[in-house]
Specification:
This protein has about 350 residues and is mostly beta strands. About 5% of the residues lie in helices and about 55% in strands. The N terminus is likely disordered.
């Protein structure tokens, strides 16, 4: 009963759309296709107690609401249409609203997206590539994406256009992705790439680029399950060009090692070891960088370690609660961070009465 009004409203909305767009051939084909109203509710809190020069202390608190219609336009095509809202911090009365609009081409093993992207787990990128708080602060991205999941490779590649070029305004976009290529048994070859571009020569806006890439080996028990038991080792490199005032060498390197152990489906214990030299990724976790938050402080050789525990449990239905506590050793200094996350996803099938196509 609680979804009756939502289903009725969706039905009326799509019926009106069908009647108003006969040229799109929606009246007969789309009304009889598969339609789902998908909604995600997210309640989050993330607190970091950092006082070193690399990453600042930060508290992120808020609630997010994402709702959109998933409509199969054909056997291999679909579109999404809806809204995303983010209310940040308890004392703020305002909130941001963004559209969700995507054209999707899909098969049993692949998915191509034009419009609003899938941003699950930061496209699979590790922390030195993209900081984990982007999962909360930038869950909506726009651009192009290709996802491949078959017996040969698991791939998430994307282009996220953040800002368009205009007089006095730089164009901003990032791109890249992650790939896993199974080799033998539980061993897989991994590759990661993340690029960031800023500038616009057309309007004499300074152009600069940052690129980070890595190649690694992953040993993972039961890769088709939750995948919490694994050991991965990455060699990374970065290059920053034409950034005014950049204090270090253009080229950097790093060694990233992460292990995770889960005795059950709820508890997870993990650790990270990092050793870097002149490494810098614009959207990565700054604890891995040689550049300080002020863009001036620079330490060529870096060391960073992290230990954490995570508890992820199903509450009721598809609702889940995630608790995570992490200890950080940043060049010998100790810090801690905490994350609380509750997610409530649900789908509502939308059934519309088929309408007879009118003769021309």
């Amino acid at each position: 009963m609680r979804f009756k009004f939502l289903k009725s409203a969706a039905g009326r909305f799509l019926s009106l759309l069908a009647l108003s767009a006969p040229g799109f051939a929606f009246a007969q084909a789309a009304v009889s296709s598969n339609i789902t109203w998908h909604t995600d509710l997210t309640f989050y809190g993330d607190n970091t107690e950092f006082f070193e020069p690399y990453r600042i202390r930060e508290t992120i608190l808020g609630q997010q609401f994402k709702t959109f219609l998933k409509v199969d336009a054909g056997a291999d095509t679909a579109f999404w249409a809806g809204l995303f809202a983010d209310h940040r911090a308890a004392q703020q009365t305002g909130f941001s609203v963004l559209p969700i609009l995507s054209f999707v081409y899909h098969t049993s093993t692949s998915e191509g997206i034009l419009g609003t992207l899938e941003t699950v787990n930061r496209h699979g990128l590790i922390e030195p590539m993209e900081v984990t708080t982007l999962e909360l602060t930038r869950p909506i991205e726009y651009g192009l994406q290709w996802i491949q999941k078959d017996n040969f490779i698991r791939l998430d590649s994307f282009l996220d256009w953040q800002q368009l070029l205009a007089p006095g305004q730089s164009e901003l976009f990032d791109y890249g992705g992650s790939a896993i290529l199974p080799l033998l048994g539980d061993v897989a070859l991994e590759g990661q790439l993340h690029g960031y571009h800023s500038g616009g020569a057309q309007f004499n806006v300074p152009v600069w680029n940052n690129l980070a890439a890595g190649l690694g080996i992953k040993l993972q028990a039961e890769p088709e399950t939750l995948g919490k038991n694994f050991l991965e080792v990455y060699g990374l490199t970065s290059k920053t060009t034409n950034l005014a005032g950049y204090p270090g060498p253009a080229q950097g390197y790093g060694l990233y090692v992460k292990g995770s152990f889960s005795p059950d489906n709820a508890w997870e214990f993990f650790g990270i070891y990092w050793m870097g030299r002149d490494y810098y990724s614009k959207e990565g976790d700054s604890n891995y960088d040689s550049v300080g938050t002020d863009g001036v402080y620079y330490q060529s050789t870096r060391s960073y370690e992290e230990l954490g525990v995570r508890r992820n449990v199903a509450i009721e239905g598809d609702a889940r609660f995630d608790f995570e506590f992490r200890s950080h050793w940043i060049d010998g200094s100790w810090a801690n961070s905490l994350r609380l996350l509750a997610t409530v996803p649900f789908d509502v099938p939308v059934h519309l009465e088929p309408t007879a196509a009118k003769a021309d």
